[in-house]
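Take a careful look at the sequence and tokenised backbone pasted below. I need to know what the token row says about the fold.
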Amino acid sequence: MTNRIISAVIAFTALFCLANRLPAQERENKVRGDRKTVEAEGFWIYNDLDKGFGEAKRSGKPLLVVLRCIPCEACAQLDQQVVSRDPAVSKLLDKFVCVRLVHTNGLDLSLFQYDYDQSFAAFILNADRTVYGRYGTRSHQTESQRDVSVQGFAKALSAALELHQNYPANKAALAAKRGPEPLVSVPEEFPSLKGRYGARLDYEGKVVQSCIHCHQVGEAMRLYYRKKQEPIPERVLFPYPLPNVVGLVMHPKETTTVLEVLPGSSAARDGFLAGDEISSLEGQPLISIADLQWVLHNAGESGELRAEVLRHGKKLQLPLTLAPGWRRQGDISWRATSWDLRRVTLGGMRLENPSADDRAKSGLADDAMALRVKYLGQYGDHALAKNAGFQQGDLLLATDGNSGFRSESELMTTLVNAKQPGERVEFVVLRDGKQMKLGFAMQ
């Protein structure tokens, strides 16, 4: 691993700790405390997936695998409700072999393919490794109430039990819930992680530092292509699109019930209505919003998906249209993996869209590019923009002569494939009413 990537990881860790207000020792205590508490309770199989599969095979029960990033605050409430067997899920959990994983070290990436920006993700599987479904969705850095709930998780478990009861007659419909071969077999084989992590956590030493967090898998995927100087695929840049990119706002307390259809969206034109339950997409039975995202993640860059919808007890067949460039309608700025993308493309700047009042005060038209520097990285490669002269509060008006960018997400994802490492990027900056040019070499 290069010093540049190491410094980026250190910088990310510092920023991540700051954002979550958890000192290193507190995170260490939380991870160790979780193991002590859960193992003492005796219900969950802890960090032993092989034992879980063996017990599922012996008992005939389906396997529930929860992957949880302990230090992360997002989804902490749901995780506590699940691990402590809240009354909403207690009886359901008894019907599963339950495994709790708090790391991705040694994780079989040919099987566990999911949104690696989640801090709580669940897989429900047969003992033969057939995937019944996934659970775990997030659209905000710290908040999760709009996306997940213990009620929604309970309904996903119930739907998975129904699939298990009908297995193996439904095996063909479940085949596409397994993805293509991964870039590497386990996370520690990624070039940016190799040699720094083992297959297990080091509870005898610094356990947090020995852990490969979920977000590091997503970062490693991008760096894999970046290091080879290949374009990062759209599905890697915009992973697991939220259904709202096609106009579907889903109900967090249901499985796949539409809460709202956004006016003017492709879903609205395709005939979806609030209250519709999307029971299958492209022939795959759905048990959660995450299942819906899985199908979208693996969809093409345009075309139509086949949806089976329950509306007032009747089955309907509807198309779900994917217009060219549909993935880019999503915002990835909330994702933990975007910290490293900011290092690469923005030199550690974090940008935000100014308010209408701020635009007016700066004399900017409503349709003009204006991205405000909300935060500047202070350490390592994340301090590149700071060292190049950028300041908090600066407004970016253009990039390499292009003034068409409307969001941080759009700017980052365009630059990362437009520029190779070492190529310079120039910005027009507005500061105190005066324009200036600043730039740096892409990392």
